[in-house]
Task: inverse folding
């Protein structure tokens, strides 16, 4: 049987792990912010962001994850919510000068992993009496 102390310890572990991932992503964003804004600016010069991203691209660090997720999906040619399949924005990455950098994929991974950690924190926290 798992004790309350071990449940609390496990919940706090996932809380600290998720928080450390967000802190690492903040440091990455602080260092690589110019590449992010260059990508966003090059997109907005030719195209208009779909409704959720039109808000998020102005939010700095807190909006970087959904916007980078949008660009990763756009690069892979996947269907994007609020965007028609034959929208000309799907040709954005046809230009070889525009790339998704490795740090952008890692940043996106950190946010997804932190979300999983926070969900596990909530789950184990709810198991406590």
Result:
């Amino acid at each position: 049987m798992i004790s309350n102390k071990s449940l609390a310890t496990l919940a706090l572990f996932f809380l600290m792990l998720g928080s450390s991932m967000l802190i690492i992503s903040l440091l990455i964003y602080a260092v690589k912010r110019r590449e992010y804004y260059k990508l966003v600016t090059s997109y907005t010069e030719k195209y208009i962001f779909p409704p959720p991203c039109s808000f998020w691209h102005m939010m700095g660090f807190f909006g970087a994850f959904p916007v980078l997720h949008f660009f990763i999906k756009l690069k892979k040619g996947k269907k994007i919510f609020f965007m028609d399949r034959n929208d000309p924005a799907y040709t954005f990455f046809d230009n070889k000068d525009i790339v998704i950098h490795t740090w952008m994929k890692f940043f996106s991974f950190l946010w997804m992993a932190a979300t999983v950690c926070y969900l596990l924190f909530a789950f184990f926290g709810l198991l406590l009496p």
Remarks:
- DSSP finds four helices and no strands in the chain.
- The mean pLDDT is 95.
- The two ends are 14 Å apart (CA to CA).
